[in-house]
Write a structure and sequence with these properties.
The protein is α/β, with parallel strands linked by helices and 412 residues long. 30% of the residues lie in helices and 23% in strands. The protein folds into two domains: 5-198 and 344-395, Quinone Oxidoreductase, Chain A, domain 1 (Alpha-Beta Complex), CATH 3.90.180.10; 200-339, Rossmann fold, CATH 3.40.50. The strands form four sheets. Strands 3, 5, 6, 9, 10, 17 and 18 form a seven-stranded mixed β-sheet that branches. The termini are far apart. Residues 36-394 form the Enoyl reductase (ER) domain.
Amino acid sequence: MSITENVAGAVGTDTAEHEYRALGVPPTMRAAILPGVGEPLRVETIATPRPRAGEVLVRVAACGVCHTDLHVMRGEVPFVTPAVLGHEISGEIVALGAGVSEHAELAVGMQVVCGFIMPCGQCRACARGRDDLCHDFFAKNRLRGVLYDGHSRLHDAGGEEIAMYSMGGLAEYAVVPATGVTALPDGLPVEESAVLGCAALTAYGAVRRTADLRFGETVAVVAMGGVGSNIVQMARAFGAARVIAVDISSAALETARGLGATDVVDASSGDPVAQVRALTGGQGVDVVFEALGLPSTFRQASDMLADGGRMVAVGIADGAATADVEITRLVRRSQRILGSYGARTRTDLRHVAAMAGADLVRPHETVTTSYPLADVDRAYRALADGEIVGRAVIRMGSASSPPSPCPSDPPR
């Protein structure tokens, strides 16, 4: 069923409510609100959003617990408040905005995953296929918390807009531009597959697009969180001969082995650079991925490179953090440092989903714990305290069941 743009934008009219009742969509939903920087997340009941032209409404199954949200909560990444965070979701399409069925292979009832980069599809970057550099995504969503018509789809009880970080996925329903949605292959666990939309999509962009990893190369991955765990899997899938996982947590390193790491380096027990070089006969690695965003690990990663090697910076840093790099070595050894933010959603998200369907990427092993929406603030406190190995997700289907147990991970 397709809902016309007129009706989709007419929140509260009899016609709109009639159509949504027919689809089983309630007028209100629960969502995790960030009232202001440094304040705890609180679950409130707000109006269920409505999709407009080119958008879909997703009943959210789960939303990933990502460090980038934590940066926003702390004020390390500026964003407007009040806001609904959450940018890594999976779920079921329950309504289509006008024109969606004409331009995308999406339908009501389809199980989908949604990318955190939701390209406008019209700016200069999108025209070149560089969804990861979409001008309107950064100018409107990341700076103002709105979608491409300049408005949020979320409102409080008084009708005031609530900012959306990406699709505002820490909620029972989310509006997502159709450019950021792809179908899940049959057989994948829907809740765990939420991590495909950010952690795995980011890893794909880093390994396939930015590093252009070549068959037989040696790789090091610094930090085994959700993104690092997926980089390990992607690197093996794209032919790396050796993948060295680096972390301070023995539990995280054990998980990395299960995901395909050929070697592990415990950074808490000695110089990780020396350990990586020892494993590679003193040469260093062809490609190193830094997935934490700390000045110290950035420098360590650059020091792990072999002559002619490539370092891919993936981790988001605190504010305007900088890192020292040895200039002369970079020049004389013909090394490269490359930034990578996500991937090209319209083409790459379907490839990520297909890789998961082929068991090349295993979201059910990347996700180590889950929380109900009622415990969302507890989940982010656990993330801040380093208690989550790999990735956690927020489940929308239960408000009271306890989170799955997770191994301890010392603060990074």
